[in-house]
Amino acid sequence: MKIGLLGKGTIGTGVFNLASKADWLEVCKVLDKKIEASCMVTDINAVVNDHGIETVVETMGGLHPACEYAMKALENGKHFVTANKLLVSTYGQELLAAARRHGKAFLYSAACGGGIPFLRNLMAAREVDSISSLGGILNGTTNYILSSMRSADLSYEEALLNAQKLGYAERDPSSDVDGLDTMRKLMLSCAVGFNSFVKPEGIPVRGISQIDTQDIEYSKAHCCSIRLCAYSEMKDGRLAAYVQPELCRLNSHENATVSNLNYAWYKGQSCGTMGFGGQGAGMYPTATNILADLKAIESGILYMTSDKCSPLQIDNSRQMRSYYVRLESGFDFPEDFIEESCVSGNQRFITTRAMPVAVMFELLGNEKKAFFAGKEVQSC
Q1: CATH class of the domain whose range is 118-281+316-374
Q2: Measured between alpha carbons, how far is 165 from 196 in angstroms, rounded to an integer?
Q3: Are 275 and 263 in contact (CB under 8 A)?
Q4: Which of 185, 199, 220, 368 is catalytic?
Q5: Radius of gyration of the chain (CA)
Q6: Which pLDDT tens digit goes with each residue over 113-131?
Q7: Is 185 annotated as catalytic?
Q8: Does pTM surpass 0.90?
């Protein structure tokens, strides 16, 4: 297979290096700002108009010009493979429509889980089983912060700084710590697992930037750890989906997922729960998943969703969860949902009864001085 590579940053370099060792792959052209070799170009047209190139691999990141380049590739009769979760979660429907229109592939296994073969296995399971739920720890930055806060007794700020020094967190970590990166990966998982397109604004998200050492101490006292988890469930034709911190039991797969590792799972009616753990990012893990997509194209696999994929609204009103909550003592939390409550200084600590997830997000989803975590992880 002859490919054109868009971008030669970390992931692009990984793809280039692995492709150079694969006798079934040839990198014909590389689009980048700098010309460092004869195969490198600065004009997208030099890639998409090259009749020898069968597949375009995008590793640039971002929305623009990645979206325009993707459309050009498909319209010029090229298969398109990407690891760009922002691109797929934002313009996935349009790109899929263009790919089907031109009879070309649109694959993005590496966009969720990096090197973990999660979406590919989820897609295969969907063809022979009915997927009832899915989720997991889908962001290595937040997982490093949360696990190191507990293991090394660090504050949130100290753990975040360490993550930035190690290259796990960006200078602006908001996409990770606010849960947006996890939400986008959950969107892709819903598309593949449930054949359902979900709009980004449809999934409620609560990140970890409000966490405090008091919350870590609470988790220790209750033999748990805190992880940022994604969860989605299809039941009676209704799709529930949300991202929030969770209190995970010490014998759970989530608790065993430490440092910057990821853990993704799905549950089928016949196969039960299947979990996948490993590096959710990085040069060669992600590049490996990209090459697996290229091999899939050779096998005739062109799409990750069926032609029956349809949009669905998120409904979390029937998702019942109990919560640990920490907020300012003056906050008027509804008494009907409170099981236990105590006040320490200006902080109030609450354990709730089972309550709708939708209600919790209505109450505290935008409250900057509160932290909450679900009390059980669904996959345990």
Answers
A1: alpha beta
A2: 38
A3: yes
A4: 185
A5: 22
A6: 999 999 999 999 999 999 9
A7: yes
A8: yes
